[in-house]
Design a protein that fits this description.
With 392 residues, this protein is of the alpha/beta class. It has three domains: 3-143, NAD(P)-binding Rossmann-like Domain (Rossmann fold), CATH 3.40.50; 150-279 and 287-304, no CATH class; 321-392, RNA polymerase sigma factor, region 2, helix turn helix motif (Rna Polymerase Sigma Factor, Chain: A, Orthogonal Bundle), CATH 1.10.1740. It is built from 17 helices and 13 strands. It has helices at residues 13-24, 40-50, 60-69, 81-88, 106-114, 124-141, 150-158, 188-191, 196-200, 209-217, 219-232, 270-278, 292-295, 310-320, 324-340, 346-359, 368-388, and strands at 3-8, 29-35, 54-57, 76-79, 95-98, 118-121, 145-147, 161-162, 165-166, 171-178, 239-243, 249-255, 260-264. Strands 4-3-2-1-5-6-7 form a seven-stranded parallel β-sheet, with helices on both faces. A four-stranded mixed β-sheet has the order 11-10-12-13, with helices on one face. A two-stranded antiparallel ribbon has the order 8-9. β6 (118-121), α6 (124-141) and β7 form a beta-alpha-beta unit. α2 (40-50) crosses α3 and α5 runs parallel beside α6 (124-141). Bound molecules: nicotinamide-adenine-dinucleotide and magnesium ion (MG). Nicotinamide-adenine-dinucleotide (NAD) binds next to α1, α6 and α10.
Length: 392
Amino acid sequence: MKQSICLLGATGSIGDSTLDIIRQHPEKFSLFAVAANTNVGKMAYICDTFRPKVAVMGDSESRDELARRCKGLDIQFEWGEEAMCRIASAAEVDQVMAAIMGFAGLKPTLSAIRAKKRILLANKESLVTAGKLFMDEVARYGVTLMPIDSEHNAIFQCLPQDDHGFSKSHVSKLLLTASGGPFKDWSLEDMKKVTPSQACNHPNWSMGQKISIDSASLMNKGLELIEACWLFDMTPNDIDVVVHPQSIIHSMVSYEDGSVIAQMGVPDMKVPIAYGMSWPNRITTEVAQLNLMDVATLDFSQPDLVRFPNLKLAADAWFMGGTAMAHLNAANEVAVDAFLKKQIGFLDIATINARVLNELPVFPVTDLAKVFEGDRIARKLAQTFVQSGKYL
Ligand code: NAD
Ligand code: MG
């Protein structure tokens, strides 16, 4: 039976790759609804090409402009977070691609879980900030949660599987690979002067701005460490981060008998997306097959926590528990935005993250309101640091 898709974050990098998989398999997938923030031009193109039934924008001006540009198309145009929650839980939808950038993705993703959709989770920030509540809801509603982040998708592929998901039998460790980003071998002195365009220029992956900066500062790996803890019921002590600059091995699972199983392929997000959409089957992707002779060498090393303190901060936040992970994520969203606007330097991102994480009191996450409150106070403190410049 054809699977009906709701694509949240349709105009982004993951949105592009998801649309490409839908285009390649019209007999398997149809696009019911799309959502994006303010990129009207790209959304108009998507509406014209894919003809979803509903299109949602972040604000009313963008919605009106989109409706004007798409006049004559049989599409319902809406705006705002509530509308995004409605399309994510609509009866017509089978699978929801959660690919909104940042904390803004949390509510629509939770709506999709509560409506028992298959969740294709790219939006790691929702799981990082609300991890326990998120996973409790996944269990309560019995939904299939497919990790789309390439590392987590790789781990999922390397774990023992049954029709309901994965098991952890005989697993001793997870090995989370990291490219190391564009500044892997740079001195601290040189990293001080990094520009946003240098930081966005990832060696192996083409991604949205925020995750590109996160990859350069290793915050992405920190968020992924927390993401892996929640997804696979582990702690940072069960996970080794391995720097592997070629990004050919997307992650590995180490077993108690000494076996290590790796998932490999050329770095292209269409592979984990197609896997998530077709699991437990596989479908074609038009992605090039890996040629190991071309790659020739695979390198591995330990991450440098002195030049990249964000990775350590993420592990700290996990052990602090409660709202600490929401604090760290919010501080980072503010700091990355300030770096992109050239208000702070590259190394200041981790400094602000550390200050916010270490200065705010942590509360247990007993309900969603606590997560939103943690996010709010952390954003406020991070903004104060950015504006005053007093964080060193
Ligand atoms: P992107 O910046 O290219 O796209 C983000 C999308 O989210 C856009 O469609 C944008 O309109 C939408 N958006 C942003 N703010 C919004 C808001 N407030 N309300 C509604 N929509 C909003 O980002 P991306 O690279 O596609 O990444 C999306 C998510 O997937 C992120 O959480 C990222 O960490 C995760 N992810 C991305 C990749 C990748 O290769 N790009 C890999 C793994 C995980
Ligand atoms: Mg990743």
